[in-house]
Amino acid sequence: MSLASEELRYVYAVCRPLDAPLAADLTGIGGEPPRQLAHEGLVAVVGPVPERDFAEEPLRRHLEDLDWLSDTARAHQRVIAALTSVTCPLPLRLGTVFRDDSGVRTMLQEGADRFGRVLERIDGCVEWGVKVHLESEEPARERNTGAAAQDKPLSGRDYLRQRRSRRTAQEESRQRAEAFAQSLHEKLSERADDSRLHAPQDSALSKAPGVNILNAAYLVPRVHSEEFVELVDHTKDEEHDSAGLRVELTGPWAAYSFTADDPEPGAQATERSR
Fold first, then answer.
1. Coiled-coil ranges per the record (predicted)?
2. For residue 231, is pLDDT > 80?
């Protein structure tokens, strides 16, 4: 079997024809440089990958190998990031593979209408992510309560009173955080062409401290990105800092959250490093 027959075509993204070639030193999966495969007004950005790793069965096994998955995702994202700097790509799912160029062209042909609609919607835009976290102060409270208990034993009534007071304070803090997040989302949505509310992240999985109150994505024209960033930064100078709230801004990204043809509200974005 020849080397060529052992290679499959990995597709990173679909976009409109580029005005200039990709950077000569850009590499994707396996250190291979991506190339453009054009078909009737669309371009698939592809790269060769070995069949031994990306055929259906070995790929399924690899997706359970976190080290392999992490390396592959970084290489995938590297190509998407390079494309985002020069155009507005429609990123495809990690592990999108075809047998040969003919299979890629068939994908472009069959998906032409959908690709065209999505590319028109995201044209000239990038995605910004905004999260609001309510910082947890529970450990400090517990330490203070524990020290006080050692100094002076609490009666059953005092203990119950403290628990009610703590629970009430937590509920009020959560309500203030949700009100702030809702207000911020409304302000940012007015400055964006579109927005998506994603499910809050589990702090145990994300490793981010505190409770995730807002997890949103915004489709923002490149020409208005500076204003959008300034609006988010301005919130960091407001009173919410003293209330234990943290605002996190990420981007600009390719429009991962806006590539579905008919997205459902709150649909989950493609996973990526942030």
1. none
2. yes
